[in-house]
Every structure is written in C-alpha cells, then in structure tokens.
C-alpha cells in the first residue's frame, strides 16, 4: 500500500474586509487540526487567501491588483509555510497571481513536506464574463481579471505518488482529468468557489448544484481511476452564498468523505494510491483501449458544430 493521508481543508466565508493575515491564521488552525488527524497533505480552496473577488466589478486596475500576490510565499503567507514545514505536511492552495511581467492568473501551488513549492498550476477553464452583465443575479468576472492558464495540466511526483492540480470550473471538464490521466495521475487535488445560486438560472437550487459538483468529480475519478480531492470555500461572503460539499472520491468514483458544514472543516482520509491500479490496468487501461484515431475533434474543434 502507498498511502497519502489527505486533509480536505474546507474554508468558511472570507469577507471583503478580512486581511490576508487573518485568513492565514485560519489556515494555520486547519493545518494544526490536519496534523492532529495525521495528514501528509492538506488541500485548501481556490483563491484561499481572499474573498472571491471576481464577484465585484472593478474598473481601476490598482484596485484589482490589490487582490493579487506578486510573490509566493510573501510576508503574510510565510507563517503558513513555516508551520507546514514544522508539521512536515505538503500543501495545495489557490491564490491570484500577478507575475513580474504583468500577467494575471488564477493559480494553485503544491509544496513538498519541507515547504518548497514543487508545482504550479494556472486555471485553464475560466468561467463568467468580461463586462458588467445586467442580466445576471450576480457577477462572475473571472474572464475580466484573469488570463487562461498557460501551463497546461502537468502532474508531479510528490509524497511517493503522482499528483495533479485543477481549479474549480476545471472539475466540470473531462479533458482536465484525461490529460492528467494520460500522465498516470493517481490523485487530483482542486479547490473551488461555487455560488449557491446560478446567476443565469436562479431556479436551479443548491441541491442540483451540489449534484453537479459530485457528478463531475466522481466521473473524473472513476474514468481515470484516480483519487480526487475537491475542496470548497463556502458560506456567505458579504451577502453572496457559496456552497460547501467538499469531497474526497476514490478511484471507483465513490465518495469516501464529504463536508457537512459551510464553515472551516477538515476531512482526513487515508488514500491508498495502489487502489488506482486495478482501474488503470483493466477497464481504463488507456494503452489497450483508447482509439485516438477517432478523437481528433477534441483538439481540433472548440465549439459544437451540428450537421447541416
Ligand atoms: N470559481 C468557479 O470557477 N466557479 C464556477 C461557477 C461560476 C459555475 C464553477 O464551475 O464552480
């Protein structure tokens, strides 16, 4: 058995006025709890250091840039790195990244047990819109504030396994998991901020939205025979509700742990990476069963084109 004890560290709401330092203190409390529960790896949400700022329409670029980190770790986040190294726990968390040459990404990093950053991922599938949209019940301006990720979907050897990262909306796209599956991924870790209300279909309801969350994550895990750890930022941020439902799914696509609150909550599960082998060697043995000669449209066409 090759076991990684994974902590899904769901975070409750972060208000617009909350400082990075206050958020990092909460993340350290979650890390301490994860340590007590024997974790090797802790997974935090997307944009873990701030409120989900893409809900706010901003025109002043200086105001936008205030939500971004220009270095990682920086002074506000260093205490988290220090505690993680002390505890010998690897981390994954998301933040808004502003590069030295002025690019803006929705980014996640992964560290090893010594607090070294060993992997970086930049969100590929950016949902939402660029301009203020009067038709929506609330704004979702990721396409305004971020560029699509430019790093693809790499995987990394860490903690004795092969681990990949994704961010929020990426979890709904089968391509996300399959590109990592083709690199032998054994565990996908991802964070999300998902509004409880569909801005374009308010009648949808949170039950259906949680169903789509589970459906996407469970399908990704099963079809690539890997573990998936999906972690929410949840609760009401300045009047805007985000759903919880953080979950850990095994390579059979079964949910093995699921959050029950919309606040700070830690789920720890021993994930045996060898449990990925059966699926990878049988029904999802890609080398034997995939038929790439029929998959050309996946990479040559973006939108659907129905026949005449
Ligand atoms: N942060 C996100 O990417 N949220 C999207 C919402 C807007 C649908 C998600 O897929 O959860």
TrEMBL record:
A GO MF term: hydrolase activity, acting on carbon-nitrogen (but not peptide) bonds, in linear amides
PROSITE patterns given in the database record: CN_HYDROLASE
Protein name: N-carbamoyl-D-amino acid hydrolase
The organism's place on the tree of life at top rank: Bacteria
Gene3D superfamilies in alphabetical order: Carbon-nitrogen hydrolase
Coiled coil ranges: none
InterPro entries, per the entry: Aliph_Amidase/BUP (IPR050345), C-N_Hydrolase (IPR003010), C-N_Hydrolase_sf (IPR036526)
Residues covered by the CN hydrolase domain: 4-275
CDD domains per UniProt: DCase
Pfam families associated with the record: CN_hydrolase
Keywords: Hydrolase
């Amino acid at each position: 058995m090759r076991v990684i004890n994974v902590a899904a560290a769901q975070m409750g709401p972060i208000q617009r006025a909350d400082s990075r330092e206050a958020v990092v203190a909460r993340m350290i409390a979650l890390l301490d709890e994860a340590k007590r529960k024997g974790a090797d790896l802790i997974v935090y949400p997307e944009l873990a250091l701030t409120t989900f700022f893409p809900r706010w329409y901003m025109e002043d670029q200086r105001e936008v840039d205030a939500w971004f980190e220009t270095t990682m770790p920086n002074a506000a986040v260093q205490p988290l790195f220090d505690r993680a190294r002390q505890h010998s726990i690897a981390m994954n968390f998301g933040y808004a990244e502003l590069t030295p040459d002025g690019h803006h990404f929705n980014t996640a990093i992964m560290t090893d047990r010594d607090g070294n950053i060993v992997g970086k991922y930049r969100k590929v599938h950016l949902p939402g819109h660029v301009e203020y949209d009067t038709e929506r019940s609330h704004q979702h301006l990721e396409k305004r504030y971020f560029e699509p990720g430019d790093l693809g979907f790499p995987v990394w050897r860490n903690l004795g396994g092969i681990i990949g990262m994704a961010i929020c909306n990426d979890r709904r796209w089968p391509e996300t998991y399959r590109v990592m599956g083709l690199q032998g991924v054994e565990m996908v870790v991802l964070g999300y901020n998902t509004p409880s209300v569909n801005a374009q279909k308010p009648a949808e309801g949170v039950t259906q939205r949680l169903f789509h969350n589970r459906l996407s994550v469970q399908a990704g895990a099963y079809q690539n025979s890997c573990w998936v750890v999906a972690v929410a930022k949840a609760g009401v941020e300045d009047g805007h509700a985000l759903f919880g439902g953080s979950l850990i799914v095994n390579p059979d696509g079964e949910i093995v742990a699921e959050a029950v609150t919309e606040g700070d909550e830690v789920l720890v599960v021993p994930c045996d990476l060898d449990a990925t082998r059966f699926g990878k060697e049988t029904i999802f043995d890609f080398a034997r069963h995939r038929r790439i000669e029929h998959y050309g449209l996946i990479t040559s066409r973006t939108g659907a084109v129905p026949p005449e």
